[in-house]
Amino acid sequence: MFRSGKHIAMTFIADLVKTMTLKIEKRAEKLGTTIKLIGQIHQDDLGGLKAELQQSEPTIVLDLEEIFLVDVDAIRFLVECEAQQVKINNCSLYIREWIQRERSR
């Protein structure tokens, strides 16, 4: 019985992860704007994310602490952000390494 309940819970979590997209939390501060991203970043999310960046103060920080999945378009977007002096904080190691590889292409 426990195994079947565990299986159901794992299936539920997997389905939840598949449907979760990107949540954006924006916080204006004295020195600029912090934009916290939660979930996944995919190509479909980039238009809205670019709009948020354009509406923000000149000093922008992207907090990626709760990002767990990205696609190649998101990585290219992050490379562009850094080139435009957007600071990226709390970036997971796999995302940071991917950004560095993409930047060196």
Can you put this structure into words, describing what you see?
The chain is of the alpha/beta class and 105 residues long. It has a single domain (21-103), classed as Transcription Regulator spoIIAA, CATH 3.30.750. 48% of the residues lie in helices and 30% in strands. The chain has helices spanning 2-19, 46-54, 72-83, 93-103, and strands at residues 22-29, 32-41, 60-70, 87-89. Helix 3 (72-83) crosses helix 4. The chain is globular. The N and C termini lie far apart (52 Å). The model is unreliable at 1-9 (pLDDT under 50).
Strand order across the largest sheet: 1-2-3-4
- CATH superfamily placement: STAS domain
What would the principal axes of the Cα set say about the shape? globular
The CATH architecture classification is 2-Layer Sandwich
For the structure shown, list the relevant keywords.
105 residues; Transcription Regulator spoIIAA; disordered N terminus
Short summary:
The chain has helices spanning 2-19, 46-54, 72-83, 93-103, and strands at 22-29, 32-41, 60-70, 87-89. It is of the alpha/beta class and 105 residues long.
List the helices and strands and how they pair.
Elements: H1 2-19, E1 22-29, E2 32-41, H2 46-54, E3 60-70, H3 72-83, E4 87-89, H4 93-103
Parallel strand pairs: 2-3, 3-4
Antiparallel strand pairs: 1-2
